[in-house]
Amino acid sequence: MGAPDDRRGRSAADAAQPARYWFDPAMPYVESRCACDSGAAYLPHTHPTLSIGAIDSGHSLFSTEAGPVRLSRGDVVVIPAGQVHACNPVPDGRWSYQMLHLDPAWVEAVLAANGAAPALPQALARVRITSAADSYAALCRLNQMLFSAAPAARKEAALAGFVGVLLGGIDPRQTVRLPRPPACGQASLARLVALLRERHAEALPLADMARSVGLSRYQLIRAFRAETGMTPHAYQLDLRINQARRLLRAGAAPAEIAQELGFSDQSHFQRAFKQRVALTPRHYQRRPR
């Protein structure tokens, strides 16, 4: 599927752009992205959202701590909020895809209103993959609606209907990928994670972090990666990027965000952001016209 039409009707030249992004301030609980014939690769990262992606063409390697899986055209993947992952084209390949990001609280409210099963929240905490043609077609129709000039009320109704069908029950056609259990359950590591969350904008030396948990720097990196899927530095950068997304959506200037979140300069911020979002901060922030 090509990128859906913009909600305000962009030109054919704009429609040919390799990546397109949609959000509407009237619907702050959802954003959508479509990329066509892309070779962009992502570093391992997380989203604070529940994310639903689909492959439109080409092949992709979707990686989590449970290992990689190859995705092909028509595959749909549901990624829980906070799940460390990377989804990239196969080596020397290109792919087209769409990705929907949903606020987890909004999803839970929709499912609760639909009378979802009590066990569903636990099921949604796991990666799920399906090759069901109707699931893929439904996501395509939804994105066509989101990128169209339809009023927000119609878009919200379509989105709620899609969520209710895809996530409102345990579909036996969906493959559930269970995360590996943490390799190290040290309370000191949990405290370090909490510290990084609280002080993610500060440059915390690795040696100081290692001393705080009674490990060497190498031992800390290995244990932290086993616990979270990332090194301490990557984890801290990921927290900064997710905070940057919230600030950009609120209208903050990229230069101010770079300074507030502890990046060495705006170029460092832009590079780190693009490695995890595949858009520049300005492109991410730009509202559809």
TrEMBL record:
SMART domains in the cross-refs: HTH_ARAC
InterPro entries: AraC-bd, AraC_XylS_family_regulators, Homeodomain-like_sf, HTH-like, HTH_AraC, RmlC-like_jellyroll, Tscrpt_reg_AraC-type_HTH
SUPFAM superfamilies noted in UniProt: Homeodomain-like, Regulatory protein AraC
Listed PROSITE patterns: HTH_ARAC_FAMILY_2 (PS01124)
Domain HTH araC/xylS-type positions: 190-287
Keywords tagged on the record: Activator, DNA-binding, Transcription, Transcription regulation
Record has Ribonucleoprotein as a keyword: no
Descriptive protein name: AraC family transcriptional regulator
Gene3D superfamilies: Homeodomain-like, Jelly Rolls
Tree of life domain: Bacteria
